[in-house]
Amino acid sequence: MKRFKSSRRHFLRGCLGAAAGSAGFWATQARLQLALAQTPPTGDYKALVCIFLFGGNDSYNMVVPRSSAEYDVYQSVRNNLAIARDQLLPIDPVQPSAVQYGLHPSMTQAQQLFADGRLAVLANAGSLITPVSKSDYQNRSAPLPPQLFSHNDQQTFMQSLSRGNAKTGWAGRAADVMQSMNLNQQLSMNISLSGNNIWQSGRNVFPYSVSGQGVQTFKYFNEDSEDNAEVSRAQVFRALMEGADSHLFQREYAAIQERAWALSGDLIKALDEQPELTTAFPPASNLATNMRMVAKLISAREALDVKRQVFFVGFGDFDTHGDQNNRQPALFQELSDAMGAFNNAMDELQLTDQVTTFTMTDFGRTLTSNGDGTDHAWGGHQLMMGGAVNGGELYGRMPALNLNSDDDIGEGRIIPSTSIDQYGATLARWFGLPGADFGSVFPNLGNFDSVDLGFMKT
Length: 458
Known about the structure:
Blueprint: H1 8-21, H2 29-38, E1 46-53, E2 63-65, H3 68-78, E3 89-91, E4 101-103, H4 108-115, E5 119-126, H5 134-139, H6 151-160, H7 170-178, E6 190-192, E7 208-209, H8 228-242, H9 248-272, H10 286-299, E8 308-315, H11 324-348, E9 355-361, E10 380-385, E11 394-395, E12 418-419, H12 420-431, H13 438-441
Parallel strand pairs: 1-8, 1-9, 5-11, 5-12, 6-7, 6-8
Antiparallel strand pairs: 2-4, 3-4, 5-10, 9-10
Helix pairs in contact: 1-9, 4-11, 8-9, 10-11
Protein backbone atom coordinates (compact mmCIF):
# COMPACT_ATOMS: atom_id res chain seq x y z
CA MET A 1 0.00 0.00 0.00
CA LYS A 2 1.39 3.44 -0.98
CA ARG A 3 2.05 5.56 2.08
CA PHE A 4 1.93 9.36 2.26
CA LYS A 5 5.33 11.00 2.51
CA SER A 6 5.58 14.51 3.82
CA SER A 7 8.71 15.85 2.16
CA ARG A 8 8.26 19.03 0.15
CA ARG A 9 9.94 17.54 -2.92
CA HIS A 10 7.58 14.59 -2.85
CA PHE A 11 4.70 17.03 -2.44
CA LEU A 12 5.66 18.98 -5.57
CA ARG A 13 6.11 15.80 -7.59
CA GLY A 14 2.67 14.76 -6.40
CA CYS A 15 1.26 18.02 -7.70
CA LEU A 16 2.60 17.22 -11.16
CA GLY A 17 1.12 13.76 -11.03
CA ALA A 18 -2.26 15.13 -10.05
CA ALA A 19 -2.09 17.67 -12.85
CA ALA A 20 -1.30 15.06 -15.47
CA GLY A 21 -3.99 12.70 -14.22
CA SER A 22 -6.91 15.12 -14.02
CA ALA A 23 -8.40 16.97 -16.97
CA GLY A 24 -10.06 19.39 -14.56
CA PHE A 25 -6.83 20.40 -12.83
CA TRP A 26 -5.23 23.34 -14.61
CA ALA A 27 -1.62 23.05 -13.45
CA THR A 28 -0.14 21.07 -16.33
CA GLN A 29 3.54 20.30 -16.89
CA ALA A 30 3.80 23.11 -19.41
CA ARG A 31 2.30 25.59 -17.01
CA LEU A 32 4.68 24.56 -14.28
CA GLN A 33 7.59 25.20 -16.63
CA LEU A 34 6.12 28.65 -17.22
CA ALA A 35 5.92 29.11 -13.46
CA LEU A 36 9.58 28.23 -13.08
CA ALA A 37 10.48 30.71 -15.78
CA GLN A 38 8.41 33.48 -14.15
CA THR A 39 9.26 32.79 -10.50
CA PRO A 40 10.50 36.07 -8.99
CA PRO A 41 13.91 36.25 -7.30
CA THR A 42 14.29 34.93 -3.77
CA GLY A 43 12.73 37.33 -1.30
CA ASP A 44 10.22 38.77 -3.77
CA TYR A 45 7.22 37.80 -1.69
CA LYS A 46 4.03 39.84 -1.48
CA ALA A 47 0.69 39.26 0.20
CA LEU A 48 -2.64 41.05 0.29
CA VAL A 49 -4.86 40.61 3.35
CA CYS A 50 -8.49 41.71 3.06
CA ILE A 51 -10.49 42.28 6.25
CA PHE A 52 -14.12 42.33 5.13
CA LEU A 53 -16.35 44.18 7.58
CA PHE A 54 -19.60 42.28 7.10
CA GLY A 55 -22.82 44.18 7.69
CA GLY A 56 -21.81 47.61 6.42
CA ASN A 57 -19.41 49.69 8.52
CA ASP A 58 -20.55 53.09 9.77
CA SER A 59 -17.21 54.69 8.98
CA TYR A 60 -18.49 58.23 9.61
CA ASN A 61 -17.87 57.46 13.28
CA MET A 62 -14.54 55.84 12.45
CA VAL A 63 -13.00 58.94 10.82
CA VAL A 64 -14.53 62.17 12.13
CA PRO A 65 -13.80 65.87 11.44
CA ARG A 66 -12.29 67.74 14.41
CA SER A 67 -12.23 71.25 12.97
CA SER A 68 -14.87 73.41 14.63
CA ALA A 69 -17.15 74.19 11.69
CA GLU A 70 -17.01 70.70 10.20
CA TYR A 71 -17.45 69.02 13.59
CA ASP A 72 -20.53 71.14 14.28
CA VAL A 73 -22.10 69.91 11.04
CA TYR A 74 -21.20 66.31 11.91
CA GLN A 75 -22.66 66.65 15.41
CA SER A 76 -25.93 68.17 14.23
CA VAL A 77 -26.44 65.49 11.57
CA ARG A 78 -25.41 62.49 13.67
CA ASN A 79 -27.41 63.67 16.65
CA ASN A 80 -27.30 61.05 19.44
CA LEU A 81 -24.67 58.99 17.60
CA ALA A 82 -22.04 61.75 17.47
CA ILE A 83 -18.71 61.09 19.19
CA ALA A 84 -17.71 63.85 21.60
CA ARG A 85 -15.09 66.05 20.00
CA ASP A 86 -12.70 65.87 22.97
CA GLN A 87 -12.75 62.06 22.82
CA LEU A 88 -11.57 61.80 19.20
CA LEU A 89 -8.03 60.51 18.64
CA PRO A 90 -6.24 63.16 16.53
CA ILE A 91 -4.52 62.13 13.31
CA ASP A 92 -2.17 64.53 11.56
CA PRO A 93 -1.61 63.80 7.85
CA VAL A 94 1.84 64.31 6.41
CA GLN A 95 0.24 66.74 3.96
CA PRO A 96 -1.96 68.91 6.21
CA SER A 97 -5.46 69.66 5.00
CA ALA A 98 -7.81 72.51 5.81
CA VAL A 99 -9.91 70.17 7.93
CA GLN A 100 -8.54 68.23 10.89
CA TYR A 101 -9.72 64.68 11.55
CA GLY A 102 -9.69 62.14 14.34
CA LEU A 103 -10.36 58.45 14.81
CA HIS A 104 -12.93 56.80 17.04
CA PRO A 105 -11.68 56.76 20.66
CA SER A 106 -11.52 52.94 20.64
CA MET A 107 -8.92 52.90 17.84
CA THR A 108 -5.71 53.70 19.71
CA GLN A 109 -3.65 51.14 17.76
CA ALA A 110 -4.88 52.58 14.45
CA GLN A 111 -3.97 56.08 15.62
CA GLN A 112 -0.42 54.92 16.40
CA LEU A 113 -0.13 53.14 13.05
CA PHE A 114 -1.23 56.33 11.27
CA ALA A 115 1.36 58.36 13.20
CA ASP A 116 4.03 55.78 12.31
CA GLY A 117 3.24 56.04 8.60
CA ARG A 118 1.89 52.47 8.49
CA LEU A 119 -1.83 53.30 8.05
CA ALA A 120 -3.75 55.42 5.56
CA VAL A 121 -7.41 56.27 5.03
CA LEU A 122 -9.24 56.14 1.71
CA ALA A 123 -12.18 58.52 1.86
CA ASN A 124 -15.65 57.75 0.55
CA ALA A 125 -15.08 54.63 -1.56
CA GLY A 126 -17.88 52.38 -2.69
CA SER A 127 -19.58 50.40 -5.42
CA LEU A 128 -19.60 52.29 -8.72
CA ILE A 129 -19.74 51.36 -12.38
CA THR A 130 -19.10 54.91 -13.59
CA PRO A 131 -18.76 58.21 -11.73
CA VAL A 132 -22.20 59.26 -10.46
CA SER A 133 -23.47 62.73 -9.56
CA LYS A 134 -26.57 63.50 -7.56
CA SER A 135 -28.45 64.46 -10.72
CA ASP A 136 -27.24 61.26 -12.42
CA TYR A 137 -28.73 59.27 -9.56
CA GLN A 138 -32.00 61.19 -9.47
CA ASN A 139 -32.47 61.02 -13.25
CA ARG A 140 -31.18 57.43 -13.54
CA SER A 141 -28.83 58.71 -16.24
CA ALA A 142 -25.82 56.63 -15.12
CA PRO A 143 -25.59 52.87 -14.64
CA LEU A 144 -25.76 51.82 -10.99
CA PRO A 145 -24.65 48.70 -9.16
CA PRO A 146 -27.50 46.22 -8.67
CA GLN A 147 -29.77 46.52 -5.64
CA LEU A 148 -28.04 49.33 -3.80
CA PHE A 149 -28.40 49.05 -0.01
CA SER A 150 -28.92 45.25 -0.13
CA HIS A 151 -26.40 43.31 1.95
CA ASN A 152 -26.08 40.26 -0.29
CA ASP A 153 -26.08 42.17 -3.58
CA GLN A 154 -23.57 44.75 -2.43
CA GLN A 155 -21.25 42.17 -0.87
CA THR A 156 -21.30 40.38 -4.22
CA PHE A 157 -20.65 43.54 -6.21
CA MET A 158 -17.84 44.75 -3.94
CA GLN A 159 -16.12 41.39 -4.37
CA SER A 160 -16.93 40.72 -8.04
CA LEU A 161 -17.40 44.20 -9.61
CA SER A 162 -20.01 42.62 -11.85
CA ARG A 163 -23.65 43.61 -12.42
CA GLY A 164 -24.67 40.24 -13.84
CA ASN A 165 -24.67 36.72 -12.50
CA ALA A 166 -21.26 37.05 -10.86
CA LYS A 167 -19.21 33.86 -10.65
CA THR A 168 -15.73 35.28 -10.17
CA GLY A 169 -14.20 37.97 -7.98
CA TRP A 170 -11.39 40.39 -8.66
CA ALA A 171 -8.92 38.56 -6.40
CA GLY A 172 -9.83 35.30 -8.13
CA ARG A 173 -9.35 36.76 -11.59
CA ALA A 174 -6.01 38.23 -10.53
CA ALA A 175 -4.95 34.84 -9.16
CA ASP A 176 -5.89 33.17 -12.46
CA VAL A 177 -3.26 35.40 -14.07
CA MET A 178 -0.65 35.25 -11.31
CA GLN A 179 -0.91 31.72 -9.85
CA SER A 180 1.92 30.63 -12.13
CA MET A 181 4.31 32.82 -10.11
CA ASN A 182 4.12 30.24 -7.31
CA LEU A 183 6.24 27.12 -7.71
CA ASN A 184 3.71 25.29 -5.54
CA GLN A 185 0.82 24.82 -7.95
CA GLN A 186 -1.21 22.67 -5.57
CA LEU A 187 -1.85 25.31 -2.92
CA SER A 188 -4.16 28.08 -4.10
CA MET A 189 -2.76 31.59 -4.10
CA ASN A 190 -6.02 32.57 -2.38
CA ILE A 191 -6.55 31.41 1.20
CA SER A 192 -9.72 32.16 3.16
CA LEU A 193 -10.16 32.27 6.91
CA SER A 194 -13.92 32.76 6.40
CA GLY A 195 -15.02 29.98 4.09
CA ASN A 196 -16.07 30.27 0.47
CA ASN A 197 -16.32 33.74 -1.00
CA ILE A 198 -16.73 35.09 -4.50
CA TRP A 199 -13.88 37.61 -4.10
CA GLN A 200 -11.22 34.87 -4.23
CA SER A 201 -12.97 32.71 -6.83
CA GLY A 202 -11.58 32.69 -10.36
CA ARG A 203 -12.15 30.51 -13.37
CA ASN A 204 -9.27 28.22 -12.40
CA VAL A 205 -8.26 29.34 -8.92
CA PHE A 206 -10.52 28.91 -5.90
CA PRO A 207 -10.00 29.79 -2.25
CA TYR A 208 -8.44 27.22 0.03
CA SER A 209 -10.13 27.40 3.43
CA VAL A 210 -8.47 27.14 6.82
CA SER A 211 -9.69 28.20 10.24
CA GLY A 212 -8.12 30.34 12.90
CA GLN A 213 -7.31 27.15 14.78
CA GLY A 214 -5.46 25.54 11.89
CA VAL A 215 -5.72 23.48 8.74
CA GLN A 216 -8.86 21.43 8.25
CA THR A 217 -7.99 17.76 7.97
CA PHE A 218 -9.58 14.38 7.38
CA LYS A 219 -10.29 13.33 10.96
CA TYR A 220 -9.19 9.84 12.01
CA PHE A 221 -7.46 9.17 8.66
CA ASN A 222 -3.80 9.64 9.59
CA GLU A 223 -1.57 7.04 7.95
CA ASP A 224 1.26 7.98 10.30
CA SER A 225 -0.80 7.55 13.45
CA GLU A 226 0.33 5.29 16.28
CA ASP A 227 -3.24 3.96 16.37
CA ASN A 228 -3.33 0.85 14.16
CA ALA A 229 -7.08 1.19 13.68
CA GLU A 230 -6.66 4.71 12.34
CA VAL A 231 -3.87 3.62 9.99
CA SER A 232 -6.05 0.79 8.67
CA ARG A 233 -8.96 3.15 8.20
CA ALA A 234 -6.76 5.57 6.24
CA GLN A 235 -5.40 2.78 4.07
CA VAL A 236 -8.89 1.56 3.24
CA PHE A 237 -9.93 5.10 2.35
CA ARG A 238 -6.90 5.52 0.08
CA ALA A 239 -7.61 2.19 -1.58
CA LEU A 240 -11.18 3.31 -2.28
CA MET A 241 -9.92 6.53 -3.81
CA GLU A 242 -7.31 4.79 -5.96
CA GLY A 243 -9.89 2.24 -7.11
CA ALA A 244 -12.43 4.84 -8.23
CA ASP A 245 -11.86 4.62 -11.96
CA SER A 246 -15.13 3.36 -13.40
CA HIS A 247 -16.56 6.78 -14.11
CA LEU A 248 -15.12 10.19 -15.04
CA PHE A 249 -16.82 11.94 -12.11
CA GLN A 250 -15.65 9.25 -9.70
CA ARG A 251 -12.06 9.62 -10.87
CA GLU A 252 -12.19 13.39 -10.59
CA TYR A 253 -13.77 13.30 -7.12
CA ALA A 254 -11.16 10.77 -5.95
CA ALA A 255 -8.34 12.89 -7.37
CA ILE A 256 -9.65 15.97 -5.56
CA GLN A 257 -9.94 14.07 -2.29
CA GLU A 258 -6.40 12.72 -2.55
CA ARG A 259 -5.00 16.16 -3.41
CA ALA A 260 -6.83 17.73 -0.47
CA TRP A 261 -5.56 14.98 1.81
CA ALA A 262 -1.97 15.42 0.69
CA LEU A 263 -2.20 19.21 0.76
CA SER A 264 -3.53 19.35 4.32
CA GLY A 265 -0.70 17.10 5.50
CA ASP A 266 1.99 19.17 3.85
CA LEU A 267 0.49 22.42 5.01
CA ILE A 268 0.34 21.19 8.61
CA LYS A 269 3.95 20.04 8.38
CA ALA A 270 5.08 23.38 6.94
CA LEU A 271 3.33 25.26 9.74
CA ASP A 272 4.70 22.96 12.42
CA GLU A 273 8.25 23.59 11.18
CA GLN A 274 7.99 27.35 11.73
CA PRO A 275 9.13 28.99 14.99
CA GLU A 276 6.28 30.12 17.21
CA LEU A 277 5.39 33.79 16.81
CA THR A 278 6.29 35.80 19.87
CA THR A 279 3.92 38.64 18.96
CA ALA A 280 0.98 38.79 21.36
CA PHE A 281 -2.47 38.86 19.75
CA PRO A 282 -5.53 39.97 21.73
CA PRO A 283 -7.20 37.02 23.49
CA ALA A 284 -10.88 36.19 23.04
CA SER A 285 -10.96 37.93 19.66
CA ASN A 286 -12.05 35.92 16.64
CA LEU A 287 -10.54 38.50 14.29
CA ALA A 288 -7.21 38.44 16.12
CA THR A 289 -7.21 34.62 16.08
CA ASN A 290 -7.73 34.62 12.32
CA MET A 291 -5.10 37.31 11.76
CA ARG A 292 -2.64 35.29 13.82
CA MET A 293 -3.27 32.30 11.54
CA VAL A 294 -2.65 34.51 8.50
CA ALA A 295 0.68 35.51 10.05
CA LYS A 296 1.58 31.85 10.67
CA LEU A 297 0.73 30.95 7.07
CA ILE A 298 2.87 33.83 5.83
CA SER A 299 5.73 32.63 8.03
CA ALA A 300 5.63 29.31 6.13
CA ARG A 301 5.88 30.95 2.70
CA GLU A 302 9.33 29.51 1.87
CA ALA A 303 8.44 26.00 3.02
CA LEU A 304 5.34 26.22 0.82
CA ASP A 305 7.22 27.62 -2.21
CA VAL A 306 4.92 30.61 -2.73
CA LYS A 307 5.74 34.13 -3.86
CA ARG A 308 2.23 35.61 -3.94
CA GLN A 309 -0.66 35.07 -1.53
CA VAL A 310 -4.08 36.64 -0.96
CA PHE A 311 -5.96 36.20 2.32
CA PHE A 312 -9.62 36.85 3.14
CA VAL A 313 -10.74 37.42 6.73
CA GLY A 314 -14.36 38.23 7.52
CA PHE A 315 -15.29 40.26 10.59
CA GLY A 316 -18.60 41.61 11.87
CA ASP A 317 -21.54 42.13 12.49
CA PHE A 318 -21.35 45.82 11.50
CA ASP A 319 -25.10 45.98 10.71
CA THR A 320 -25.71 48.52 13.47
CA HIS A 321 -29.39 49.40 13.01
CA GLY A 322 -29.72 49.34 16.78
CA ASP A 323 -27.62 49.76 19.92
CA GLN A 324 -24.85 51.34 17.85
CA ASN A 325 -23.42 53.41 20.68
CA ASN A 326 -22.71 50.22 22.64
CA ARG A 327 -21.79 47.88 19.77
CA GLN A 328 -19.55 50.11 17.68
CA PRO A 329 -16.81 50.82 20.25
CA ALA A 330 -16.18 47.09 20.74
CA LEU A 331 -16.11 46.46 16.98
CA PHE A 332 -13.67 49.31 16.32
CA GLN A 333 -11.41 48.31 19.20
CA GLU A 334 -11.27 44.69 18.03
CA LEU A 335 -10.45 45.82 14.49
CA SER A 336 -7.81 48.30 15.61
CA ASP A 337 -6.16 45.94 18.10
CA ALA A 338 -6.05 43.03 15.65
CA MET A 339 -4.51 45.22 12.96
CA GLY A 340 -1.94 46.51 15.43
CA ALA A 341 -0.96 42.99 16.48
CA PHE A 342 -0.75 41.83 12.87
CA ASN A 343 1.52 44.77 12.04
CA ASN A 344 3.77 43.73 14.94
CA ALA A 345 3.82 40.15 13.64
CA MET A 346 4.92 41.35 10.21
CA ASP A 347 7.68 43.32 11.91
CA GLU A 348 8.73 40.14 13.71
CA LEU A 349 8.84 38.27 10.39
CA GLN A 350 10.63 41.23 8.74
CA LEU A 351 7.90 41.34 6.10
CA THR A 352 6.27 44.68 6.88
CA ASP A 353 7.02 46.07 3.42
CA GLN A 354 5.78 42.93 1.68
CA VAL A 355 2.32 42.51 3.23
CA THR A 356 -0.54 44.97 2.74
CA THR A 357 -3.75 44.77 4.76
CA PHE A 358 -6.92 46.61 3.77
CA THR A 359 -10.61 46.78 4.63
CA MET A 360 -13.75 46.39 2.54
CA THR A 361 -17.40 46.30 3.59
CA ASP A 362 -20.90 45.91 2.14
CA PHE A 363 -21.56 49.65 2.02
CA GLY A 364 -21.47 52.74 4.19
CA ARG A 365 -24.31 53.78 6.46
CA THR A 366 -26.57 56.81 6.74
CA LEU A 367 -25.31 59.99 8.31
CA THR A 368 -28.65 60.35 10.04
CA SER A 369 -29.64 58.37 13.12
CA ASN A 370 -32.71 56.17 13.16
CA GLY A 371 -32.91 56.77 16.89
CA ASP A 372 -30.65 53.90 17.97
CA GLY A 373 -28.36 53.28 15.00
CA THR A 374 -27.88 53.84 11.28
CA ASP A 375 -29.36 52.32 8.14
CA HIS A 376 -27.97 51.03 4.85
CA ALA A 377 -26.29 53.60 2.64
CA TRP A 378 -23.52 53.75 0.01
CA GLY A 379 -20.06 55.33 0.28
CA GLY A 380 -17.69 55.02 3.25
CA HIS A 381 -14.06 55.16 4.36
CA GLN A 382 -11.53 52.30 4.17
CA LEU A 383 -8.21 51.59 5.89
CA MET A 384 -4.93 50.41 4.32
CA MET A 385 -2.00 49.19 6.42
CA GLY A 386 1.58 48.07 5.78
CA GLY A 387 5.10 49.22 5.13
CA ALA A 388 4.37 49.58 1.41
CA VAL A 389 1.47 51.94 2.13
CA ASN A 390 2.15 55.66 1.85
CA GLY A 391 0.78 56.00 5.35
CA GLY A 392 -0.11 58.93 7.52
CA GLU A 393 -2.33 60.33 4.78
CA LEU A 394 -5.96 60.74 3.76
CA TYR A 395 -6.66 59.80 0.14
CA GLY A 396 -9.62 60.60 -2.04
CA ARG A 397 -12.19 63.30 -1.36
CA MET A 398 -13.98 63.64 1.96
CA PRO A 399 -17.71 64.20 1.39
CA ALA A 400 -19.74 67.09 2.69
CA LEU A 401 -21.59 65.91 5.79
CA ASN A 402 -24.45 68.39 5.72
CA LEU A 403 -27.76 66.91 4.64
CA ASN A 404 -29.02 67.54 1.10
CA SER A 405 -25.52 68.38 -0.14
CA ASP A 406 -24.45 67.38 -3.64
CA ASP A 407 -22.98 64.22 -2.08
CA ASP A 408 -26.23 63.20 -0.36
CA ILE A 409 -28.95 61.35 -2.28
CA GLY A 410 -31.25 61.46 0.73
CA GLU A 411 -31.23 60.62 4.45
CA GLY A 412 -27.49 61.06 4.55
CA ARG A 413 -26.72 58.37 1.96
CA ILE A 414 -23.43 59.52 0.46
CA ILE A 415 -22.50 58.93 -3.18
CA PRO A 416 -19.01 57.35 -3.38
CA SER A 417 -16.37 59.52 -5.02
CA THR A 418 -13.93 56.61 -5.50
CA SER A 419 -14.74 53.20 -6.95
CA ILE A 420 -13.71 49.77 -5.71
CA ASP A 421 -12.20 49.17 -9.18
CA GLN A 422 -9.78 52.04 -8.48
CA TYR A 423 -9.13 50.82 -4.94
CA GLY A 424 -8.42 47.26 -6.08
CA ALA A 425 -6.34 48.35 -9.07
CA THR A 426 -4.04 50.41 -6.83
CA LEU A 427 -3.46 47.36 -4.63
CA ALA A 428 -3.07 45.05 -7.64
CA ARG A 429 -0.45 47.26 -9.29
CA TRP A 430 1.73 46.96 -6.18
CA PHE A 431 0.99 43.23 -6.02
CA GLY A 432 2.38 42.77 -9.54
CA LEU A 433 -0.68 42.21 -11.73
CA PRO A 434 0.46 42.71 -15.35
CA GLY A 435 -0.87 45.89 -16.90
CA ALA A 436 -2.44 44.01 -19.80
CA ASP A 437 -4.77 42.19 -17.39
CA PHE A 438 -6.21 45.15 -15.52
CA GLY A 439 -9.19 45.44 -17.87
CA SER A 440 -10.32 41.86 -17.32
CA VAL A 441 -9.73 41.90 -13.55
CA PHE A 442 -11.33 45.33 -13.01
CA PRO A 443 -14.06 45.58 -15.67
CA ASN A 444 -15.23 49.11 -14.75
CA LEU A 445 -11.79 50.67 -14.38
CA GLY A 446 -11.83 52.27 -17.82
CA ASN A 447 -14.77 54.44 -16.78
CA PHE A 448 -12.63 56.38 -14.29
CA ASP A 449 -9.89 58.92 -14.95
CA SER A 450 -7.54 57.76 -12.19
CA VAL A 451 -6.45 54.11 -12.11
CA ASP A 452 -3.87 54.53 -9.32
CA LEU A 453 -4.94 56.37 -6.17
CA GLY A 454 -1.35 56.82 -4.98
CA PHE A 455 -1.56 55.21 -1.56
CA MET A 456 0.92 52.42 -2.41
CA LYS A 457 4.65 52.88 -2.79
CA THR A 458 6.10 51.93 -6.16
